[in-house]
Write a structure and sequence with these properties.
heterodimer, A: 65 residues, alpha+beta, 23% strand, B: 407 residues, 17 helices, binds iron/sulfur cluster
Amino acid sequence: MMRINADTGLCVGSGQCVLTEPAVFDQADDGIVALLTDHPDDQSAAQARHAVTLCPSRALSILQE
Amino acid sequence: MTKSVAGELASLELPVERGCPFAPPAAYERLREQAPISKVRLTSGGKAWWVSGHDEARTVLADGRFSSDKRKDGFPLFTLDAATLQQLRSQPPLMLGMDGAEHSAARRPVIGEFTVKRLAALRPRIQDIVDHFIDDMLAADQRPVDLVQALSLPVPSLVICELLGVPYPDHDFFQSRTTMMVRRTSLEDRRRAFADLRAYIDDLVTRKESEPGDDLFGRQIARQRQQGTLDHAGLVSLAFLLLTAGHETTANMISLGVVGLLSHPEQLALVKADPGKTPMAVEELLRYFTIADGVTSRLATEDVEIGGVSIKAGEGVIVSGLSANWDPAAFKDPAELDVERGARHHLAFGFGPHQCLGQNLARLELQIVFDTLFRRIPTLHLAAPAEDLPFKTDAVIYGVHELPVTW
Ligand code: SF4
């Protein structure tokens, strides 16, 4: 199963991930990414992968498939 | 496989004006075909690397070994004269010009103001603002109407004023100054506009420091007070950046988006038939026009190897977002305006840690404007041939000066 990691130290709060897959990504009040789950289900996996490529600060990564 | 860099220096003198208003300068394509990273000559003298491949552009912009500090020696500035450089060096840097830890320290406190959730809460208010200006347009007894004055400029202007807590009666003043500042012509005018605006903002921040109020600046001031870090100069820089960046850019995208859609009726029909497609259309329009080209320049602080090219410390790098957004390797048939393309990976807002802070506010405004405008005035059309419009070939931010429309 896919596992996602979000590096809050790198995140610049662009919200690209939230716009792409709100079932997996959220932003805390301070704008920094917060994962709603680190194991996206099959329905969300493709969009979550897309979010990883869109993240401008390379804060998101896929740890395992 | 990456094409190797051309041995000879490409003879592109920068900046280049767009020939066709709906396409990048022809020279861009030639350069990209030659190599995704090549060397060019600057009009200001000197040379720089020209990055025109999409993949290479993202790699450079995400790499911390490239500096954004325009004050550094060797930074590839399009126009370079001693006075401009001196002015640049005498001002505290904007967030745009900071690197690494200094940049995140400046950006972090503000990003909470621009979360997707917080912006969504602004939707009804932005809708009201858009409806208000469209009401006025419909009530005008003369046609054609200039959409730039009637809608494109006042909408983002009012939105940013409200968000930042700038008294709206002042908006005419900063609107005129910011327009002047991004023009390529008359250095004197630009310098005066810059100084006027700086003085106005300094005064605004001083007023807010005694009466903060519940707006973006008010909250920043309260927060800095609490931490005992109240930084007047920093607040002025931030205010300056948010006011100028958040308003002229969106205004130009509104105008160009309308021109783009009206000139491609089959694409507009798709959007009209299904407003669910508007967000995708917005991304495609952002890609297609890429209004802020070349503002994402960098300076290598170390030797860096990218795409088979070795860039040495101290060399300037100009990342052309426009060229990258027309790279056929990333966008099939880039010259086609295709609202169903799915163009989210465009670089119109830049990439890397400096990627536009206000991008989601811009997205929201563009979506609401296009949806509302074509719903409320379905017969809207250009009152002049698109090719004859006065395009801003003389400005750093691309757009149209005037946009006569009728219905
Ligand atoms: S896309 Fe990346 S930088 Fe933007 S909020 Fe998400 S994790 Fe942060």
